[in-house]
Design goal:
The chain has 509 residues and is of the alpha+beta class. The protein contains 19 helices and nine strands. The protein has a four-stranded mixed sheet with strand order 1-2-7-4. It has a three-stranded antiparallel sheet with strand order 3-9-8. The radius of gyration is 23 Å and the shape is globular. The N terminus is likely disordered. Its cofactor is heme. One of its GO terms (molecular function) is monooxygenase activity. Belongs to the cytochrome P450 family.
């Protein structure tokens, strides 16, 4: 990057901060003022710490669509939207006009050529092979085995230890460690044992937090700004670089170890082997060309799946248990459902149940959907059209314009969920016949929508039900009072700081 090209950027940023501190005054409405030269950037910076609430305030006041004007030289003009018709159009009806594209891949460069980052043929190869694998009967068996193994050897001993000591701990950290261990075993056949009583520090596990912290800022700030941070190795870009290094140091050795096992045929013939299938996918993509790097392909593939398997599930479980502490009647109903469906006697503990049995837990499913509605893990979707398009809302969007879809806002819209949209009500997901209601993905986009709908949706629910049911029936989570709970200003909305709790055992294990 030419140093002289940064001068206009630095001038704009300096003027922006001047405007923010000395001119801008908070008005009664949430719409940021459009200033000369710097556009609406001062209002954005002022609300950066509460970006999801900021988007929501604006969108609910402006009818679900808002045009954001950035600095004159910043290429930051954006359309914020939570309009279900626009969501359906962008993610489904006109899907081919809204690929990830080069700008998205630049923002998410750390994910390489994984499923979240690619388009066209490679995306279709990734999706086809991953869907084939997760629908395989042996994968279902492996999933159940891994989840219960991590529950029995990781989660239960840790919760028992905290219960015995009576000490407070961060439940969010426990869930992140649980999902990290589980997805590592599932994909890499390697148990990092981050969920141990001593709670060891693992750079790779912590690296996911630094990654999602940096990625939202790459979405909404001028590229020249974060590119400068990257070049100088400062700020969030420094943390992102360190996370990248931690991922590589964790994943590449695990890949090499697995390849060596395959080469030496130390795996049993009947074992379900994801590695071989993904190597076949790589050969399909390269047409058998051996000049490429299969390890890099596997690294990108598994990092993408680890990101999905760790962050989304752990985030949902964290918000779910916080909501339960605020709604004890819901917790009681879930406990009663578990007891009835699994025919448990009083004083009998809940240990294992299979995937089919998990489908009986309808009320628990509804409660998890409520947590996903109010706190969708991936809260913002970033799109740009290949060609000029006119959205159902009437807005013209061009290839040089960003569209930010706020899934967070959509869970708080009275037009979609009624006047009680801010309440935690699992009943809204249950039909008169006692089954889980179907809600269109363009209304409930917690798992995205259209062709890029999350293919791990069922897997996520299975894992969350197994963990949630085990904790709810065997333990009672008590929230430590005095905490300020709010979502992080990140792509994956974790809880700011932590979720401090105590745990009490209900029944002996």
């Amino acid at each position: 990057m030419d140093v002289y090209s940064l001068i206009p950027v630095l001038i704009i940023l300096g003027f922006t901060y001047f405007t923010w501190f000395f001119i801008n005054r908070r008005s009664k409405n949430s719409e940021p003022r459009n200033w000369p030269l710097v556009g609406m950037l001062p209002g954005f910076i002022q609300n950066a710490h509460r970006i999801h609430e900021f988007f929501t305030d604006i969108l609910l006041e402006t009818g679900n669509n808002f045009e954001f004007y950035g600095p004159a030289l910043g290429n930051m003009n954006m359309l914020f939207t939570s309009d279900p018709a626009n969501v359906h159009h962008i993610l489904s009806r006109n899907f081919s006009n809204y690929p990830k594209g080069p700008e998205f891949r630049k923002i998410f460069e750390i994910l390489g050529n994984g499923i979240f980052n690619v388009d066209s043929e490679l995306w279709e190869i990734h999706r086809k092979i991953t869907m084939s694998l997760i629908s395989h009967a042996k994968f279902q068996i492996l999933l159940k085995k891994n989840v219960w193994d991590t529950v029995e050897k990781g989660l239960v001993p840790v919760l028992d230890a905290f219960a015995e000591r009576g000490t407070t701990f961060d439940l969010q950290d426990i869930f992140r460690r649980f999902t990290f261990d589980n997805i590592s075993k599932l994909l890499l056949d390697y148990d990092p044992k981050s969920l141990s009583i001593d709670l060891p520090h693992l750079p790779c596990e912590k690296g996911f937090n630094d990654m999602v912290d940096a990625l939202l800022y790459r979405h909404v700030l001028p590229e020249s700004y974060w590119q400068l941070q990257k070049k100088l190795n400062i700020g969030k870009e420094k943390n992102l670089s360190q996370a990248w290094e931690a991922f590589d140091q964790f994943i590449y050795p695990a890949i090499s170890q697995k390849q060596e096992k395959l080469l030496n045929k130390t795996n049993k013939d009947e074992d379900f082997d994801l590695f071989s299938d993904y190597i076949k996918a790589y050969n399909q993509w390269t047409n058998g060309d051996t000049s490429g790097n299969v390890q890099e392909f596997l690294r990108d593939t598994f990092l993408n799946l680890m990101f999905a398997g760790r962050d989304t599930t752990s985030t949902t479980l964290t918000w779910f248990f916080w909501l339960l502490t605020k709604n004890p009647l819901v917790e009681t109903k879930i406990k009663e459902e578990i007891e009835q469906q699994f025919h448990l006697e009083k004083g009998e503990n809940l240990k294992f149940f299979d995937i089919e049995e998990s489908r009986k837990l309808v009320y628990l499913h509804g409660a998890l959907c409520e947590a996903l509605r109010l706190f969708p893990p991936v809260s913002i979707e970033h799109k740009s059209p290949l060609e000029l398009d006119v959205l159902p809302s009437g807005h013209r969007v061009t290839p040089d314009m960003k569209i930010l879809i706020s899934f967070y806002t959509m869970g708080r819209m009275q037009t979609l969920w009624g006047e009680d949209c801010l309440e935690f009500k699992p009943e809204r997901w249950i039909s008169e016949r006692g089954a889980v209601k179907h809600v269109p993905s363009y209304q409930f986009p917690a798992f995205n929508a259209g062709p890029r709908t999350c293919i791990g949706k069922d897997m996520g629910f299975i894992q969350m039900k197994m963990v949630a049911a085990t904790i709810i029936y065997n333990y009672h989570i008590q929230l430590v009072e005095g905490q300020t709970i709010s979502p992080t200003a990140t792509v994956v909305i974790r809880m700011t700081n932590s979720l401090k709790v105590r745990v009490v055992k209900r029944v002996p294990l």
